[in-house]
Structures are given as structure tokens and as C-alpha cells.
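Re: that chain you flagged

S.,

Sorry for the slow reply, it's been a week of failed gels. I finally had a moment to sit down with the sequence you sent. For the record, here it is as I used it:
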Amino acid sequence: MFQPPLREPQMRHTTALTFAAGLAIAASSAAAQVYSSAPNAEIPNVGQFVPLTDTITITGGPARIADLNVNLKIQHEYDEDVHAVLQTPYGYINLTTSNGFGQDYLTTRFDDSAASSITSGASPYDGDYRPEGLLNQWAEYDPNSAAQFFGPNYRRLTELNGLSANGDWTLWIEDFNSLFQTGTLLYWSLEFNYASDSNNPRAAAPAPTTPRAKASINYSVFTSGQTARFLIDVTPAYLPTPSTGITATVNASSIGQGTITLLDDGVNDDGVAGNLIFGGAVPVDAALGDYALSYSVQDAQGRATTGTFPTISVVGPGPTCPQGQDPQTFTNLRAFGGWQQDPDNSLANLAFTGTGRITDIHLSGRLASGNTGSFASNAGIAIYFTDGTANLFEPIPDQFNEFSYVDVADADLHLFTPRDPGEIVGIEVYDNFENEGLDETWQTLCLSFETRNTLPIINFAYNDPSSAEPGAAAGFYASVDTGVNPFSTNLTVTVDLSPLGGGSAELFDDGAHNDGDAEDGFYGGDVTIPANAPLGPVTLNVVAADAQGRSASTEVPFTVVGPVQWDETVNGGGDAGDLPASATLITGAGTLGSLSGFIDLDNADMYAINICDPANFSADSSDPRTQFDTQMWLFKANGAGVEFNDDGPNGGSFLDNSFVTEPGTYYLAITSYDYDARDGDGELIWENTPFQGVRAPDGPAATSPISSWSGFNFSTGPYVVNFTGVCFIGSACDPDVNQDGNSDQGDIDYLINVVAGGDNPTNIDPDFNRDGNVDQGDVDALLNVVAGGDCP
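Prediction finished late last night. Pasting the C-alpha cells below so you have them in one place:
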């Protein structure tokens, strides 16, 4: 029973109509009509929970729909964010959800007769496509507004054929991403009964002068005696007069059945009576081999069309039931795209009986393809339990090509938690990829079970953080199933720290160690890293053991890291600036080995560093404490670019001495991926690609100094950069450049020698006046300071 809407959308447009009659169909001018709306309205994102709705109200329209198309014009920065549903006076149809990776629906016609579905198209959408059909992600992202759709969810526009066009037709559009990209609904229209909207540069398909037919068969492969079900979807002739008295027949003599008359009566797998889908079923009685069956569709006006069904194969019987207890057999279980709980997926009761705890379910059967573009590896099966949960399995791995059928002799479906037979109540077959129509069918499926003595099972284990300094703590976690047949008692879970010079650290399932609920099989605890642990990566074992002498273990990678030498907040006093004028100076004495900081949204961190040993310079952000996808940039003191890297060899970003030839003050910047350096005109200093390799400036503004940052900064988090060949910048304007404890002529002589290209044993930055150049100006600035003048 229809329920009234839960709430009224806040953004609604009811638009005056543009109406055109007689478009291309002079003989039926009263029936061929176009209704349109041009709201030019912004499409809200899901975070606003106010979908855009635009309604066309039709009066005096076609009393009987013979054909319906929908045109859309949408300007949008990222098509994958767009969801569009058409609510008709009778039910609703999903036009598109989350399709495409580019921009705009230029002029997109949704037409059931189109060659391709919108799900297989590409941005920008500018052509004819079949609509997606079933509601998909809208319900996931915005269940409140999705609940306001009423009536059946149509798979095709042709399901409206035969109904009146009069009533309210409402287009719902939403942007499911709450950030960044935006869009506008410019225009949309309804084309009835082969009318063609003049605002679409491509004319709609002409009205048929003979009947048209789409023929399908339930399987592509049969065993002898198995039932073949034929369907023919008929589009009647429309000109010069509509078809009446349509009949459909199949020549099935090659499979031993002669001529079959298909019926549109609602009882032959043809859907609703009178919907012009004709169906019929007969058993296959033929030798092994391939067969092509022909069909004929005729109307009472003497017009006909003929064709052939997709070729079928007759093969030998499928696999028998696997070994195991209480085998149960099912036939003809159909899976549609749309993941688990698609209303068109097949459900079946599963009533195992027996004793013991079930650890594994065995599966055998024959899977037949139901759709071009479906893969056997997408086929899934859900095992349901009395507590409402389910385990999901994909029993055919690595089958990434289209297939006709696959036989499964014995697939082992291991249960995450052992179950009593009475706890397992049902199955659902599904497909894990959103596709149009039937994906595959388990022609035969047999399930049995086994109860076996098992060790404790560690489903997974991890640590957070995945690194720590010696003497610090890191959280370790594990999901563990007890051994069964018999049950484990006194189960303990520990982390073996012997590779780090320690003993064992226990994890707990008591609800008090960040482990969730007590006794839920999830163990946790803080583990202290031994103070003498060697630095570097290591593999630690998580071990589960019970009093029955059974144990299981799994490996967890871990890295022991050294303390960070300099921190953005602790040592720098707060967030580092993002340009040379506001950069944080890393001042001090000696070698700089590492720095740490934190990146916020729309933020870059820039530091002034002293590259004191150019031949050995490197900067690497692949430290495990770095928690986002970094980019690293190096600039001269005057802001000109030196080098850049996105993806280094160790997983983070990496700079080296490829373009660093002189010691001195440089600016190092850290950003997240796609937040890029630009000049004063907003042009890129570096191109976006390639991602690997250290590159000198190569963008349109390669020779310009940095002036700003922009782009999509999707990530935030901490980072650690490790250095070689880098020193602290000396205390501001320290004239003791030879570091003998005095500021005198010796310092001036030392700097003159370094500027002239001589040795620099103290590794000072010779750019004393910090103007980006090493020259006589630095000597003059030092002379002034030694004489008592101000620092430059």
C-alpha cells in the first residue's frame, strides 16, 4: 500500500511546459508529444539532504504510451557524483547513479532501444543510452528522500507502455558527494510516442513501420531435458497504423520441439499480461552440440519481423554434490547485479540437520552466464544465520573474462564463526557488480557441511600505530575464533616480542583494552616496545593458544623508529607557513636528521633548511608515521623551484641531489597529493605527471617563483621527513662563521674563501645575507655585522 512521503523536499521546481506536437509523425500528431522544463537550478549535494526536484504536470497527453524517452542536460564538474531518478505517476525508474568520471551530461537521451546502457558509457554523456533501471546508491546515501519514491521500481521505460501520460512526472537529482564539485540541471524533457525533442541535436529513433523484437533465452547452456524459456520483447509497428493481433513463434525443431507459440498472458514467464513480452517454455531434447533457433513476430496487418535467439549449447550433466553431511540441492537460482539483497536475487531456505559445530560448507554446481559483460568471479553467495548476520563468499576466483558456464566441483566456504546446523537458515545468490539485467544463474547448486576438529583461528591481526620508538607503546589487535569440536578453553592471545629483544605481551577480550565488547572474539591491548629494540622494520607474530594444546599464529609487520629531531609545533611554535615569506626557519646547530608536522586541509607546510652537504642530500617522507599521500617540493631562497617528487621508491615522496649543486638555504615544502605550487598568475610550476622521479620545474611557470598553492587537498594527517646532507640554519646572523668563538677578521677571511669556492669545513651557509646568491654581497654583510652593524 502506498505510504505518503516522509517529508517535503525543500528545493522543488514546478515548471511551465514547452509542448510540441506532430514532431516527425504527421499521421499521429495527437499522440506524438514532447514536454520539457528548463529549471537552470543548482543540484544540491547529499550533505544538504535536499535533492533537487523538478515536476512536469501533463494534461491532455497521450492516452496510451507507446514509447517514452527522457532527455537530460546537466552541467556538472564530476559526473560520478550525479544521481537522477524519474518518478512517474505510476512508479519510478533510476536513470543514472554514479556513472562516468568526467564532466557533463551534454544532451543525453534515455531510450530503451539504445545500444548501450548508461552504466557502460563514458563522460561527457552526449548520446542515447538505456537507463540504469533499479535504484542503486541513492538509497544508500540518502534513504530519507529515497523513501519518498512511490510505486514499483521499473527496470525499463517500456514498462510504462499502455498507460496514460497524464499526471505529475518529477525528476529527482542529487549530488552524492558533500564536498567540492557542483552542478546545474539546465534542461530535461519527455518524448512520448516517437516524438523527437528539437533541443536534442540527434533525432529520436523513428517510429517502427514493422514490428521490432528483442529475443532472449534463459540460459546459454543446457543439459538434455532441461527447460528452455523463450522471451520476445515486441515493439509494435506504429506507422501507418499501430499493430494489432501480434503473434510470436519459435522454430524449435532442432531441439526436438517443433514450432512453439509464445504467449503474452502473464503466466509464461512473460511478466504482466498485455505488456507485449511473449514467453514460452519447453524441455530441450537434443544431442550435445550448439543450436541457433529462429523466431517470427507478425501482426494482423501482415507485417512481420524474423530473427534468431542467441546460440545455445547442449552439454553433459554438471557436477554431483560434494562430499559432506546433509547435502541439499537447488536449481535455477538467479543473480542480478546490485550486490547482496537485490530484490530480484534468488533466496532459498537452507535447513541443515546434524550434530557438532559447522566449520565449512562445501559447494558444487553449474553457473551459467545471463548477461553480456558478466564475469563468473562476480558471482557470490550469502549464507544467512538466525541472528540476522551473513557470511559472503565468491566461490569462483580469478574468472575475469566473459563466460558461457562454469562447473564448480567443490568450493570450500569457511565460516568465520563456527555454527550449529540450526543456526544456518538460508542462502542468497547475488552478483557483486552493478550491471543491467540478469547476470548469471546457478542452474544447479548443492551445499553440504562438515564439522571438523579445528585449531583456534586468527581471522586478522593488525597494529595501530604500525610504528613506535623504543620504550613507547603501540596498540595491537586481533580477531580470533576459538577452536571447535571440542571448544577451546583458557584461550590466550599474545604478541611475541622476541625479535625486538623482549618477551610476550598479552592481548585481552575484556572490553577494557580498546577491544570492543567483552568476550566478542576481538582482542586488544597496548604493547610496550622494548627499550633496547633495534631500529627498522620487523615481523612480529600474534599467537592464539588454548588449554587443549592447539595454537595458531599470524604475522604482523612493525617498524621501530627513532625519535624525531625537530617538530613543527614543539620546536617551531605552531603551524609552518606555506610560502617563503612565512616559512618556518629550522634554526640550531649541527646536522638535521628528521622533522615532523601535521597537514591540514588546504594547507602546505614550508621550512627553511640548510643543505650543507649537497652531494649527499636527500629528503624522504616514507616514514611509517606519515599518514597521508605526500608531495615534496624544494625551492631556492628566492622562491624559484629546484625539484619536486610525488611518489618515491619507498612509498612516500623523495628528493635527492639531482638538481641541488650548491650548499645554502633552501625552502622545503610538504603538501598532500594534488595540492600544487603555482606562480603569481596561478600557473603550475611543475606539471602534474609523471608521478615518479625527481623533476626540475617543467610546468608553464617553470621559471617563476612560487606565489600560491591550489588544487584538491583530500588528505590530512601527520608526517615525518628524514634527511641526509641537511644541517640546521645557524642562529640568526651569527658572524662566527669559522666557529672559533670570536667574531673577527678570521670569519671574514673564512667566508671570502668559501665564496671563492674554497673548503667549508664548518659547513656554514655562505649565503649570509640570504638573498639566494653566494657572492660579494655576503662578504659585505658579514663585514658590517663584525663591525657592529645590524644583521641583514
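What I noticed first: The helical segments are 137-141, 143-146, 745-755, 776-786.

Talk soon,
D.
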